[in-house]
Amino acid sequence: MHRANAARRQLDFTRLFLAQGLAALLVALLGLWQAGAEGAASALLGGLVSLLPSLYFVWRGLYRGRRNVMSFYQAAAGKFGLTVALFVIVFVTVPPSNPALFFVAYVAAQLTHWLSPWLVSEGSPPRT
């Protein structure tokens, strides 16, 4: 039973990550239409800066080791640190040619977390 629930959660988190990627791709298409290939590349970088720390959080907080409050705090701290590091790496090594599209894609991918109650479900609610 535990394995079935874990597989269901993993599948549902996959849906959340697909929604994040779709949000970034939509902004990238908008960037391609408005600013060309450089705008699309900036938007894709913004989407990656959002998606990679989220993947780390789920891996660290849910699928590695024990599930307790301390592991979630560590996963959240790691996600924050990874986000800061990715921002620094992107802006130092490959500065986006269109920072506005970079941040729009980042925010769009982050806002998909508001959809998580519909995308990540623990199963049906108990009947009363």
TrEMBL record:
<feature type="transmembrane region" description="Helical">
    <location>
        <begin position="12"/>
        <end position="33"/>
    </location>
</feature>
<feature type="transmembrane region" description="Helical">
    <location>
        <begin position="39"/>
        <end position="59"/>
    </location>
</feature>
<dbReference type="InterPro" id="IPR005598">
    <property type="entry name" value="ATP_synth_I"/>
</dbReference>
<keyword id="KW-1133">Transmembrane helix</keyword>
<protein>
    <submittedName>
        <fullName>ATP synthase subunit I</fullName>
    </submittedName>
</protein>
<keyword id="KW-1003">Cell membrane</keyword>
<keyword id="KW-0472">Membrane</keyword>
<feature type="transmembrane region" description="Helical">
    <location>
        <begin position="71"/>
        <end position="94"/>
    </location>
</feature>
<dbReference type="Pfam" id="PF03899">
    <property type="entry name" value="ATP-synt_I"/>
</dbReference>
<keyword id="KW-0812">Transmembrane</keyword>
